Structures are given as structure tokens and as C-alpha cells.
Amino acid sequence: MRKRRAVLCMSMALAAVGVVTACAYAAQDNQVARDSEDFSAIERGHYLTIVGDCAACHTGPDGKPLAGGRPIETPFGYLRSPNITPDRQTGIGQWSDDEFVSAMSKGVGRDGRHLYPGMPYTYYDKVDRKDLLAIRAYLQTIAPVRKAVDVNQLHFPFNIRASMIAWDALFFHPAPFKPKAEKSADWNRGAYLVEGLMHCGACHTPKNVLGADEASATFKGSPLQGWFAPNLTTDQAKGVGAWSDDDLITFLKTGHNRMADASGPMAEVVARSTSQMTDADLRAVTTYLRDQTPPPPSMATPLAPDDGAVKIGAAIYRDECSACHKADGHGVAGLFPALAHAPFVVSDDPTSLLHVVLRGGQSVATDAAPTSPAMPPFGWLLTDEQAAAVVTYIRNSWGNVASKVDADTVAHERADLAKRTD
Amino acid sequence: MATKLPRKDVAIIGLGWTGSILAHQLTEAGLDVVAIERGPWRDTATDFSPAYMQDELRFRIAHEFFLRPAQASLTFRNNENQEALPVRSWGAFMLGNGAGGAGIHWNAETWRFLPTDFTARSHLTQRYGTEFLPKDMTIQDWGVTYDELEPHYDSFEYLCGTSGAAGNLKGAVQQGGNPFEGVRSRPYPTPPQKQGFGHTLFGKAAAELGYKPFPQPSGNLSEAYTNPLGVKMGPCTYCGYCEWFGCGNYSKASPQTTILPVLVRKSNFEARCECEVTRINLNAARDRATGVTYVDTSGNEWEQPADIVILAAFQLFNVQLLLLSGVGKMYDPKTGEGQIGRNFSHQTMSSATAFFDKTKFNFNPFIASGSIGMCIDEFNGDNFDHGPLGFVGGGYIGQVQTSGRPIENAQVPFDTPAWGAKWKQAVKDNYLSTIYAPSACHGSCYSYRTNHIDLDPTYKDRFGRPLIRMTMDLHDNELKMSAFLTDKYAEILQHMGANRVEKTPRKGPYDVTKYQTSHLCGGAIMGDNPNNSAVNRYLQSWDVPNLFVQGASAFPQNAGYNPTGTVGALAFWSAKAIKEQYLKNPGPLVHA
Fold first, then answer.
1. What is the pTM of this model?
2. Binning pLDDT at 50, 70 and 90, where does residue A110 land?
3. Is the ipTM beyond the 0.85 threshold?
4. Does residue B495 have an active-site annotation?
5. How many contacts (CB atoms, under 8 Å) link A and B?
6. Do the Cβ atoms of B369 and B220 come closer than 8 Å?
7. Is B400 exposed, middle or buried (0-12, 13-18, 19+ CB in 10 A)?
8. Phi and psi dihedrals of B453, rounded to 5?
9. Does A362 touch chain B (CB under 8 A)?
10. What are phi and psi of B369, to 5 degrees?
11. Nearest to A332 among B46, B224, B230 (CB)
């Protein structure tokens, strides 16, 4: 009771300075969150943590849910995700709601400490306070885990937290989500999710040298942990412009569609998050993502079949790849991804293609698509030149057009993969 | 001293085909299930990579996927006058190991037995009289009928996506299928596989001779398929590396490609691999299983209590565990008493090698699958009159050449030198123009008083337990049948236009070093009363009613087909009885 009175007082004080609307809103929200028995808020909060895929980063190698400790790779060194269970010493049990909301949407944690943008507060500023408090309400209900995590393992000067004040000043201008009146409710819901909790751009939008999103290149794809998070624009070749709405929804719901199978980091996103989202939300996400002006189709032409690398690649493809991916590059729906017209194949950055060729990869298993087919590794079999030839062939066959991949690029990817244990 | 673990509803011994089917069915029924598997976990991309799977030396010759005799073996003798000696390298049959069991390395021929196979003794004595069967032949009726098993054959085929042509759809004989098969309730889930040149030519020749050839039912799929569990399989690429190998293309039906992906997602399922069950624990009265004891790779011993025990190991090891655990009574061939180890049988395989003019015939034998081929069923079971022939049983006959793998398929006429320039020239001359299908005549193997399994008095395994001892020989009935089938097969090959046909009918004595399928059967057979069988018609032990013994160990004798279709059907049939009858009223399901 005492807390609620305090909130009321605060609301009144705010009203006194004239912020009438905002105050009423906040008071109402706080009431929602204050009621720790509010089952529907807790349930909604649980769903929103799934939408935000909080567990992906905040569950460490020990598997204790949301107890942190997972290494988060950045170009500036590693972060370890903090413990967000309600443990009062090592988790966020002692945080006030406002401290929680501040961390989520302003990137300023308890005691005014600045968060690193590995935590996507640059997206969560778009999330309604009401939703943030629902998340908070849910997080208060999970089992507390006592586990201290040393978050900051970055290189100098980024290991100095205060450097983030400057970073925020340069790249972070918090603004709540503003619905567009001219767009449908579906579109606005999709925009709210994609630009907010789902933080799709955190992986799929290219970054500048200081790790901030390149606003001019939204969703054009970005390197990520030994993969390339693919282009989500409506580009017909390099994005998902050739996919139907149902292709995209099916992919997010099941991890598979008639052309593609989610593997790498996206497998995890599908397993933990999108496969558990409601159909209505997935449709909204799709509506929003599809509403982009596609770039004009490329006039580029593929490398000629008599190109040396293409010829060698064609022979290797026939021997090693065609049994599953088929001579026409169309694969088998839901089992072996199509390589023809596949965005990840023709991406300017061939990292993902090289990753699966060299190391293989397992696609996601979901309740709707439990098979979880996998690609075996070929890194032990193919030399750098051979791997370069076969991916060059794949990138220039069946209508695909993309740059030649050289042996040095393969060698670089091979060396990078060798350092990875995941 | 074993460490006692928390109780489970069900402990399954072995995670091959039957263990996987039972685990799926029983977890669906809400039970908490643990499967304890002697070998390693195996996964398609990790263990059957198409980047290296086509390695005949590694997998076919060096037996990479199989049980190592140093871990578990058996002793062998032809008859009771011999001293049995340990088998130190697999020969006559292959013993699978690991998750998927023999389901990973099989050829995926997915047959149904004939309706009369299930009533073998009563049918044959009715038709030919009681004196027609050899005196020491111990064949008997199964206690279950084809009609009862039909829905479960169907379940197994739809689980596997089996590719084939129906021969008898709801009583209507179908053109292009096997006209002798039992009535099936619906077509195969996928159309038959494509046939190679040699297979097609055989079908044509057989038809010209008045037979009704049909494509072999295949668990290597003709097209992509999604089974009722939602698991997807890919179309077969006809690489010809099926038997002895794992399929890297998700094309061959196996627990990995049909069930395990769903099973591993279940919270009420757990697999413990590289854990070898050493005994089924019984209560003092020996009428109830209390669980199992197993040993892990560190030598730690664990006791897993369970309300239901499913014995789903390979035939030999089912029998061994029953004997070592004291379930029922060991069979004694002298007195005919005891049921455990009785009616052991195998398969009577034979063939003929046909050499053709290389300038006219190029069979491209490397384009194949494990269950490709055109077959005829005129000489199987009792589809023909045995009266004038003096034997019973039979088998399907087919051009079922499953590969052109170079080591096995370097076939040359028998008068060629065994090595040197002339041998090399003969291999070159014949490789592409020879038909070599070692299992072309898939003869039945009926059971006899003297063919049985017991415990060896001398040789022990690494735990100090007696090895199983196999006493096995071929009888005149099977040798006559094999000669007959081989002659019929050779006639068709000759009609195809072969220059030379070399017949290799099965000869005695039974040779444990020569491969003749891995279809070991019997030893814990099913039947209608405890005086003629180890398990009842639901595969429930007569002696220990909370123990169900799966697999071909239940076959009272082996028919002229590959057994896996029937093994799968029996597993579904048994699972249904457990779910619908046993769980409601735990106790004997049959009172005899």
C-alpha cells in the first residue's frame, strides 16, 4: 500500500507541473505493474520476453534461465549478459520499476550507470512503458538464481562505461514509437514489434565503425558471429522480395519454408522466439517488413560458365552437393535449402555460405517442423581454392548473380571458424 | 554396487526400430520413458555424411557401424556334438549398435508376410497332411493373424514412407503390384522407386515367362515425404550405399529419419546411450520385473527401476538377456522343455550370377538402392503346390542388385584365376555387364528342434556373464527349397539373354562366416499358450507380465521375406495392446 501511495503522490506532483496526460498514463501503468498478482500482466510479460528473445542473450552456458553469463561477441571485445532473475544480490530483484524501465529504454541502469548497446536499448525505447512493466512483472516471478556475472570484458577504451555517454550522445536519441495514422493497425503492430522488442535490425542492419546502426542501410544485412545476418529488404535477389507473405510467416513460425531453412543464430531466434509468437503478430511483422520500396533490379550478369572457377565449381557441385541440393539448385522443400534465388547465397558478403560449406550447420527443429535437417561439413574435404570455386559456381548458377569468391576469403573464413567453438 | 535411480514408468532396452516405436507410442500415452542403448548416439549429418559415406572399405569391409565383437559376441556350433567356439569377426549376419540399431544399416526392403505365413503349421498340415512336414520341424502358428496386423503394417509403412505398388487393395488385385500379398487397406504412401536397366529387363523376362513381376517395396523413397509425425524425408539418389551404411540424404527410413527428431523434443523421453543393460531385475517370485541394471562406459553400475520393461534389443541379445535374467526357462532340445532359446531361425538366401555380352548390355550397376528391384512372388510361402516337390517354404525371387560397389561387385566367371592379369581383365570385361544380386532368392528358414540358443558353458563376456551359444544347421527341407528357387531365378536370368549363369544355391552346413542376411529370428517366440511360446500374441512375457519382448525374436519361424516390415507391425500392435489394455488393467493380457 505504501508504494502505491508513493506513486500516487509522484503522479500528483507531476500533474502539478502540467504533464497531465503523461502522468495519468504512467499512474495507470504503474498500477498494472504494482499488482504482483496480475495474472494477465505476467502472462503478457512472459509472451513479450519471448518476442524480445531475452533468453537468447540472458541465458548462459549453464542453462539457468535468464541468469546471464552468455558471452556476447562485439567488434570491441566480449560482453557477458547480466543476470536478470529476481535475485536481490546478483540479479535485478532490488531494482525499482523505474530503474528497470530506464535500463530498457534509456540504456541507463541502476545508479546511473550506462549500459552497453549490446543490450538493444536503442530499440527498446520504442516499447511502451506498459509492455516494459509487464516484462518486469513476469521477470519477478521466475526463479531467482544467485550468480554474479562480470559483464564487461571489452577492450580499452570501451571497457570504460562512461565512454557510452558519448556513444549515446552520438547515436542514441530515444523516442517512443509513433504509430503512422495512414498505415493499417497490422502494419503499426508490425513496426512496433520489429523496431522495438524484436530488435531485428540489431543483427540485420549494417553497423558503422562504432557499432551503431547505419540508418541509410536498414535491414541490408550484417556480419554476425561467423555468419552474415541476411538482407531483409524487399530486394528481389539479395533480400526477401521474392518470398510471399506466407513464405515469410512459415519461416518465422516453423524455421522452414519451401526454399529456406533457418540455421546459425537465426535457428535460435526461431526456436526461442518467433515459433512461439502468435500468428497475428507474425502476420503484422510480415506486413511491416514487406512494406519497403524495393531497389531497382540489378542488371548484373553472372560469371560465364566457362570461367575457370565456375567450371571447377560445377564439377565439385555435381559430386558433393547435387544429391541433396539437386542439379537445378532447388533443393527439397523443408529439408535441403534451395540455392537458386537464395538471398544468403548471393549476398555480397559470402560468410554464411562459406560457414555452412566449411563447417556445416543444423537447421532448427520446431514442433511444426521437427526434422532439423543438417548440412555436413566439407571444410576437411575442400581446399580453399575448391571451396571458393564451388561457392562461386553456386553464386552464378540457376539465375544467381554474385561476385566471385577467392581463396583468400575462404582462408580468412576458415581461420575465423577455427577460433570458434560454437 | 549399483546406484539406484528414480523410478520411470517405462525402461526400454535398445533404441533401434522397435525401441523407438514403443518409446514414441508410450510417451504419446503420457508415460515417462527412458531408453537405454548399448551403442552411441547417431545422427544423420554427423555420422552418415554423404561427403564420406560412400566408403566401402570403411563401412562394408571394416564394419564401422557395427557392434565390436570385443564388446559382445556369441559362440557357434552346427550341432550338439561340436564344441561351440567364439565368433571374433561378424560373418553370417551383422549386429547393429547404437541409436537407430539395425535400422540405420538395413537395405530398407519393407515387406509384409503372407497371411498363411502366420498360420504356417495349421495351414500346411491342412493342405498337405500331418505327415508332410519333416519330423523335427517345429514350426507353429503365430497366435496373431495377418488381418489383425494389417493396420499396423500400414502404420509402419506410413511412418517410413514406403515406396511400392499395391498388389491387393481392399481385395481387388492391382495391376503391377504383388497379386499374392494380403489385402491392404490403402496404397503405399509413395510410388515405387525407379528401376535400373537390369532390374527392368528382369521384370520383362519374368513377365514373358508368365510371372507377375512387381517393384520391391522400398524404404528408400521415390520422392520427398512427410510422415504422420511431421518428419520429412528426401528422395533417394540411387547412390547404392544403403546396406552396411547410414543414409546421408534423409532418404532411407530409419529411426533417425522418422521418429527420433520428434522423440528428442519430448520432456517425458530420455535416451541414455553407451549404457549396456546387463540384466532385467525381477522380484523374488520372478513374476514381475522391477527394472533393469546397466553399466556405463566408466564401469559404473546403475539400477533403473521401472513399472514396465520393454526388451527391444536385437534378437540374439533379447534371448541372452532373458536367459541371464532368469525370465522363463531355458529351452532344452533333448526334452523339448523350456521356451527361451527355442525355434531359432535365419534366412535361406541363394542366388545366381549372370554374365552378359558386354557389347550389348551395360547395366550401370552403381545406379541402385538397397531395395530397388523387380520381384516375383509365385514361389513364396504356400503360393505354389509343394506336394510334388517334397519341401515346404519358399521365398520371393528378384533382380535386387543393390549396388555396384567395387569390392563386392568384382564378379568374374568361376573359372577365372583368382588374381593377376587375367583376373583384372575379367573384372573389366564383366563389371558393367554382370547381374549379381546375392539375396535374389529370399528363402524362408523354418525352425527345428535342434536349432536353438542357450548359454555357453565355457566362454564369458567382459562382465563375466556366459556368452550366448548358437546351435544352427541347415536342414534338407531348406536346401531343397533353395535349389528350387535358385533354378527358377536362373531360368529368368537365362531368358534375359545371359551368356552364362552360375548358380549358387545355399549348401550345408550352415556357415557362420558367410553373409546370408542379418535376419536372425526366434528364441523368444510368440504363441497362443505358455507351453509353446515365450511371449503371448501381444509380445508380453508369459512369465513376467510387465515385460514385453519386441522384434524378430518373436517369430516362430522365418518367412521368405525380409523381416523388418513385420517387426515394425508387431511393435505397433504390441504398443496398442499396452496402451489400450495393459495400462488400464496391468497384468496378463492373455489367460491361457
1. 0.93
2. confident
3. yes
4. no
5. 63
6. yes
7. buried
8. -125, 135
9. yes
10. -140, 170
11. B224
